[in-house]
Give the backbone structure.
Amino acid sequence: MVSSWCDPLYESVWIGPLTDEGNRIEDPALDSLYSGDHAYRFVEGWMNVLIVLLEGGAALFYLGSVARKKKRPLTTCIPALYLIGGFLYLLIGEANSQYTFMYVYFLIPCAVRGMADAGLHKAVRRICSGSVCTVFRRNRSSAAK
């Protein structure tokens, strides 16, 4: 159960090209990713950070609502109910990490709102400055031109 819910890559690398089956990976970066070398450790590390931010932000959202006794619309419960329902369903059935991704994906809006409510959006922006996020921001701004 722990491996299925705590894998930050959701078995996306595991279900990639299988070299044992005769598949060849010609790109050195992809070979490093799929063989577990430097690229894999880099991507796994960043995805761990992303998952902690995602789950922590969602927890801030729900705990902040309870602590402030702020009444939110009933629709804000849907992502949490979806996640809890998926967790219970996968306890009974086959719980591979590739099946848990769709439940965690629903937490993104809650995480963003939780970090904004807690005033952490500036801290997250500071953490991401000068890193991979900057590259994405630069690419997005150059594409808009």
